[in-house]
Design a protein that fits this description.
Layout (H helix, E strand, L loop, with lengths): L3 E5 L4 H12 L5 E4 L6 H9 L6 E4 L2 E4 L1 H9 L3 H5 L1
Parallel strand pairs: 1-2
Antiparallel strand pairs: 1-3, 3-4
Helix pairs in contact: 1-3
Protein backbone atom coordinates (compact mmCIF):
# COMPACT_ATOMS: atom_id res chain seq x y z
CA UNK A 1 0.00 0.00 0.00
CA UNK A 2 1.22 3.49 -0.85
CA UNK A 3 2.11 5.94 1.89
CA UNK A 4 -0.65 8.48 2.40
CA UNK A 5 0.47 11.95 3.45
CA UNK A 6 -1.94 14.59 4.75
CA UNK A 7 -0.91 18.20 5.21
CA UNK A 8 -3.27 19.50 7.89
CA UNK A 9 -4.00 22.01 10.65
CA UNK A 10 -5.63 21.37 14.03
CA UNK A 11 -8.63 23.57 13.30
CA UNK A 12 -9.55 22.26 9.85
CA UNK A 13 -12.86 20.33 9.70
CA UNK A 14 -12.02 18.98 6.22
CA UNK A 15 -8.77 17.58 7.61
CA UNK A 16 -10.74 15.70 10.28
CA UNK A 17 -13.13 14.42 7.60
CA UNK A 18 -10.25 13.20 5.43
CA UNK A 19 -8.66 11.39 8.39
CA UNK A 20 -12.01 9.79 9.29
CA UNK A 21 -12.65 8.63 5.71
CA UNK A 22 -9.18 7.10 5.50
CA UNK A 23 -9.49 5.50 8.95
CA UNK A 24 -12.76 3.91 7.81
CA UNK A 25 -10.76 2.26 5.01
CA UNK A 26 -8.09 1.05 7.44
CA UNK A 27 -5.55 3.63 6.27
CA UNK A 28 -3.36 5.49 8.76
CA UNK A 29 -1.88 8.53 7.03
CA UNK A 30 1.34 10.35 7.79
CA UNK A 31 0.02 13.67 9.09
CA UNK A 32 2.02 16.87 8.77
CA UNK A 33 0.68 19.90 10.65
CA UNK A 34 1.67 22.92 8.57
CA UNK A 35 1.06 25.36 11.45
CA UNK A 36 3.19 23.58 14.02
CA UNK A 37 6.04 22.28 11.89
CA UNK A 38 8.43 24.91 10.52
CA UNK A 39 8.90 24.81 6.75
CA UNK A 40 6.05 22.38 6.09
CA UNK A 41 3.64 25.02 4.72
CA UNK A 42 6.26 25.92 2.12
CA UNK A 43 6.81 22.21 1.39
CA UNK A 44 3.07 21.73 0.89
CA UNK A 45 2.86 24.77 -1.41
CA UNK A 46 5.80 23.50 -3.44
CA UNK A 47 4.39 19.98 -3.77
CA UNK A 48 0.75 20.84 -4.42
CA UNK A 49 0.63 24.41 -5.67
CA UNK A 50 -2.26 24.92 -3.24
CA UNK A 51 -2.51 26.87 -0.01
CA UNK A 52 -5.60 25.22 1.55
CA UNK A 53 -5.60 22.15 3.78
CA UNK A 54 -5.85 19.27 3.69
CA UNK A 55 -3.56 18.46 0.80
CA UNK A 56 -3.43 14.72 0.25
CA UNK A 57 -0.77 12.62 -1.44
CA UNK A 58 -0.70 8.90 -2.24
CA UNK A 59 3.02 8.27 -2.51
CA UNK A 60 4.22 11.12 -4.75
CA UNK A 61 0.83 11.55 -6.46
CA UNK A 62 -1.13 14.65 -5.44
CA UNK A 63 -4.78 13.72 -4.88
CA UNK A 64 -6.00 17.18 -3.85
CA UNK A 65 -8.19 18.08 -0.90
CA UNK A 66 -10.99 16.36 0.97
CA UNK A 67 -13.54 16.86 -1.82
CA UNK A 68 -11.18 15.12 -4.25
CA UNK A 69 -10.62 12.26 -1.80
CA UNK A 70 -14.37 11.85 -1.22
CA UNK A 71 -14.98 11.84 -4.98
CA UNK A 72 -12.46 9.03 -5.44
CA UNK A 73 -14.24 7.09 -2.71
CA UNK A 74 -17.68 7.62 -4.30
CA UNK A 75 -16.30 6.47 -7.66
CA UNK A 76 -14.89 3.32 -6.04
CA UNK A 77 -11.34 4.23 -7.07
CA UNK A 78 -9.84 5.07 -3.67
CA UNK A 79 -8.56 1.66 -2.60
CA UNK A 80 -7.25 0.74 -6.05
CA UNK A 81 -5.22 3.96 -6.10
CA UNK A 82 -3.68 3.02 -2.77
CA UNK A 83 -2.67 -0.48 -3.87
Amino acid sequence: MKTVTLYTTDTCPYCRSAKALLAGKGVTPQEIDVQRTPGKLEEMLSRSGRRSVPQIFFGDTHIGGFDDLAKLDRQGALMSMLA
